[in-house]
Amino acid sequence: MKKLLLIMLAMVALQLNAQNVEHYSKMVKELSSKKYMGRGYAYDGANKAGKYIEKEFQKAGADEVICQPFKLNINTFPGKMSLKVDGKKLTPGIDFTMREFSPGAKGTFKLYHIDTANYDSKKIFADLALPENKDAFVVCDFWFTYKHGADFKRLQSKECPNAGLIYTWSDPLLKFYKAYGERVIEKPMIWVSSSFPKDAKSVTVDIEHEFLQDYECFNVIAKVEGKRHDKCYVFTAHYDHLGVLGKKTYYPGAHDNASGTAAIITLAAHYAKHTPEYDMYFIAFSGEDAYLRGSEWYAEHPIVPLSQIKYLFNLDMIGDNNPVQYCEVSDPGMEGFKLMEKLNNENKYFKSLNRGELAGNSDHWPFAQRGVACIFLENAEGDAFQYYHTVMDTYKTFFPDSYEPTFKLITDFIEKY
After folding, report:
1. Residue 293: in which H helix or E strand, if any?
2. Sheet containing 137-141: which strands, arranged edge to edge?
3. Residue 121 and residue 152: Cα distance in Å, rounded?
4. For 218-238, what is each residue's pLDDT tens digit?
5. What pLDDT digit, counting tens, does each position of 74-125 carry?
6. Measured between alpha carbons, how far is residue 178 from residues 244, 251, 301, 323 in Å?
7. How many CB atoms lie within 10 A of CB 147?
8. What global pTM score does this model have?
9. Residue 381: which of 303, 305, 310, 327 has the closest Cα?
10. Does the chain have fewer CB atoms within 10 Å around its N or its C terminus?
11. pLDDT of 381 above 70
C-alpha cells in the first residue's frame, strides 16, 4: 500500500510538472505572437504585452500585482519600409535592417562603394565632393568601419555631402537592435546582408521612422508574501523586445525573452501554492532592449530597499537546448553561486554552469552595480541562439529544454540558501 501511494504521488508530481511546462510554453507562444508586434514601442506592443503579463501574475495567485510607470525616448520604424537595389526588392529583416538611431529616407540614390583593400580616406572624401557623387549612399563592410571610426563619423555628419550609409553584415543572419535608439542621427544608416551585390549601382528607398518622446512604459511587479518580511528574493526578466521594421515585419522574441518572462510567472505560481519563508518579488521589466531603462528605473525607485534582497535571479533567454548554462554573478552573489554549483553537481540539472565576466548586458547589471547579490542565467549557444535579435526568433525555433532544470535549480537553491 505504501509503495502504491509513493507511485501515485510520483505520477501526480510528473503530471503537475508536465502541466507547468505546457503552460510555460503556451505563454511563450502568446508573447511571441503577432498580437504584440514584437513587444516594442510602435503600435504599443510592449505595453499590450505588459497588460497580458499583469493578468498572468494575477492568475498565478500573486498577493499583489502593480505596474510601475516610467518614460523613455525611442526611435521606431512603424511605417513604410522599402529598399530596392538596382530595381530588385529586398526583404526587411532578412536582406536589410535599420540601425536603431537612423532617420527615414526616400528617393533613388547612386551607390559609392569603398575599396577596403586600398583604403584612401582623402580620395574618398574628394570623390564624394564631385557633382556626380552628390547625395550618394556610401557602401562599406560594417566591421571595417571600426578601424577608421573618425572617417565614418564624418560620413555620418552633414559635413560630408553623402545622403546615407549602407553597411554590409558578414554574418548569415542580420541583427536588429534598440539599445541606442534614444536619439536620431543626421543620415540614414542601413545594414544589409552579405548577399548585397558588390557591383550595385543604385538604391531606391522609402523608409519612415517615428521618434517617440517621453513614451510611457511600465514594469510589472508581482508579490507573493512569505512568512518573513525582513528579507526577500527577487526574480526578474524583461518582456520588451525589438518591435517592428515596417508595417509587416516584426521580431517575435520567443527565446529573447518571452522564455524568461514566462518562467518567472510559473515561479510566482509555484510560490503562491507553497508559502515561502521570505517575501518573493517577480519583476517583468520593460525597456531592457532600450539599454536597460526599466531595470535602471526600478533600481533607482525600488518598492523595497535593495539592501533587503537576499538574492536576485535574472532570467534572460532560457529557451534553448544547450546542456551548459551560462551565467554571470555579482561579487556579493559569489557565496550563493558556490552553493548553486554544489547543487548542480549533485543533481545534474546542467552539465555545468559556465560563469562569464559580469557585464551590462541584461537587467541584473543595475543591481550588481549597487551591491546586490545576483545571478544572470542565460541558456546560450544552443540551436535557438543563432536567431537572437532576428525575425526568426520564433516559437518554432525556441526550445523549452532548459526551463525545467532552471526552475529546479532555483527552487532547490532557495530551499537551502
Report:
1. helix 293-300
2. 88-89, 81-85, 202-207, 105-113, 137-141, 164-168, 189-192, 96-98
3. 10
4. 999 999 999 999 999 999 999
5. 999 999 999 999 999 999 999 999 999 999 999 999 999 999 999 999 999 9
6. 11, 12, 23, 30
7. 11
8. 0.94
9. 327
10. N
11. yes
